[in-house]
Amino acid sequence: MDLAYLWFFIVGVLFVGYFVLDGFDFGVGMSLPFLGKNEVSRRQIINTIGPVWDLNETWVIVAGACLFAAFPEWYATLFSGFYLALLLILLALIARGVSFEYRHQRDDPKWKARFDWMIVIGSALPALLWGVAVGNIVQGVPIDADFNFTGTLLTLLNPYGLWVGVTTLLLFWLHGVYFIALKTDGQVQQDANALAKRLAIPTVVFAAGTVVWTWIIAGGREAPLLWLSIATGAIAAVALLLSVWANWIKREGWAFGFGALTIATAVLSLWTALFPYVMPSSTDDAFSLTIENASSTELTLTIMTWAAVIFLPLVLLYQGWTYWVFRKRVTRAHIEKAESAVH
Prior knowledge:
single chain, 343 residues, mainly alpha, two-stranded antiparallel sheet, 2 strands, electron transfer activity
């Protein structure tokens, strides 16, 4: 296989990892005002992702770096054209990270409430805008003959882009609620199970709409992997329904696992619907960025491949070890004990 095509799928897998892992971080953050009824429950919720959220976020850094090295034309068009949207995502991620570190620095309810809302907004905004960005990449955006994006931020806020954005927001939220139910006990766990049931119907509706709408868009242009997009989209639909069922019977581990499978296969469905393009042009198909005209030299891709073979397994082992170390539930009794020790 040509290395450019291989790296198209490697970058896709990196984004799958990011959306699955940071996706439940976003969901946990968005759940804070709905499940955090007092300071103990709020700390219980935040502590579920406390040891891992920054590690999960590194996946997008690696994905962006690989995109820059493997597909410089794609990177240049994407980051210049989507500049404002990506800047908003970056600011939201910074606000969320700062909030995790600073909310406990003062024993003042107002101080903590401000940072709690920064966590909520810093989780919801990226969850929405990542979907908007991916939706526009799949649908196509105005690009000129020099591969320059000729639209604005408002261009990205089109019906399909916004629909995909709401879909990712709901999927990440549901994914995060499943994670809270898996990692907590007591009232927070019960409330998380109940919230997941309420989120199930709108999530299924928007996800189904995204899958069908994407297939219609991909079917209107050259899409040699449309069959694979349909297959992975079907798996995502089944996994989503199975996650809802698992939550209903209070099998938190199964619900979270099927939720992760839903996001992974949904992203792969969008990615394979895009192939062989990396950024279709809605202005003229001749101006579209493809895997071949956007990729780096063969030497660059060869060096990157060897680096990936050596270092990616080490990263996966380290992340797996981290999750194993912090695998236990964050219990209410543990938080209350820590609170009493402070006071």
